[in-house]
Amino acid sequence: MKPLNPIKNQRIYSLELMPKYFDIHSHLNFPPYDADREEVIERLALTDTNTIVVGTDAESSQRAVDLANQHERIYACIGVHPVDDPSRVFKKNKFEELVNNPKVVAIGECGLDFFHQDKDADFERQKKLFLEQVEFALEHDKPIMIHSRDAYDNLLLILEPLKKLHGEKLRGDIHFFAGDIHTAKRFWAIGFATSFTGVITFAREYDEVIKNAPIDMIMSETDAPYVSPAPYRGKRNEPSYVSEVVKKIAEIRNEDFEEVREALVSNVQRLFGIV
């Protein structure tokens, strides 16, 4: 497997400067780590792992940026989750204070969620909140970290026309992807990667998508502190466990582990512009 070429007009990155593993979605800014956060972060170095810490509102986004500023192996994603607290709005002025920090690499997690909220009652609010963050990402030339539950078709109806308007500038990742191969292909066609969590180590519903995905359109994540992979099920998850996700992706694809590992890191470099 040869190294992938970078997307047009982006700089060329060196794998020699990158970690062995990259967890693109974790929540080290959340309370479950308050008692031992520094120990968890120390294990990033021990396992040669980097992570993107993701905000779900202005406050947790600020904490993500603070962690990124304090630790070389941490990057930040800033945004407002669609349903964690329906009263939250996207305060653009607050996020303008954060977005120019060089450790901020994406906007989100934002999107649509009709698993937790009634679609008929909440669609317009969620759509408005999402589009505000899409516009913000385009304005600042950042990829989008998308949260979606029971909403892939609705998201695609929004994103596909926007792709025609904005081209390569509109890009991102569908975090914790749980759709079918047809849905995945529609996301890949508009430049959105799909990332997978530790669930793939103990559930087989994801195998078809992982087997058939272009290697440059998939990534690894933990969504820590949630969904720990085998052999850590039942324990709090953490970014250093992402190696189990990478191993399983290689196993499902029946491909060389080292080649898959390097490709996944290269994908992070390309999408998130991380040198």
> What is the overall number of helices?
9
- The CATH class designation is Alpha Beta
Largest sheet: 8 strands, parallel
Number of strand elements = 8
Any idea of the CATH topology? TIM Barrel
**Class from secondary-structure proportions:** alpha/beta
Proportion of helical residues: 40-55%
Number of folding domains?
Answer: 1
Q: What is the assigned CATH homologous superfamily?
A: Metal-dependent hydrolases
**Low-pLDDT segments:** 1-13
Mean pLDDT: 94
Radius of gyration: 17 Å
Fraction in beta strands: 15-25%
- List SSEs in N-to-C order: EHEHEHEHEHEHEHEHH
Explain the layout of strands and helices:
Layout: E1 21-26, H1 37-47, E2 49-54, H2 58-70, E3 74-78, H3 92-99, E4 104-113, H4 119-139, E5 144-149, H5 152-166, E6 172-174, H6 181-189, E7 192-196, H7 207-212, E8 218-220, H8 242-253, H9 257-272
Parallel strand pairs: 1-2, 2-3, 3-4, 4-5, 5-6, 6-7, 7-8
Helix pairs in contact: 8-9
How would you describe this protein?
The protein has 275 residues and is an alpha/beta fold. It has one domain (15-272): Metal-dependent hydrolases (TIM Barrel), CATH 3.20.20. Helix content is 40%, strand content 16%. It has an eight-stranded parallel β-sheet with strand order 1-2-3-4-5-6-7-8, sandwiched between helices. Strand 4, helix 4 (119-139) and strand 5 form a beta-alpha-beta unit. It is globular. The model is unreliable at 1-13 (pLDDT under 50).
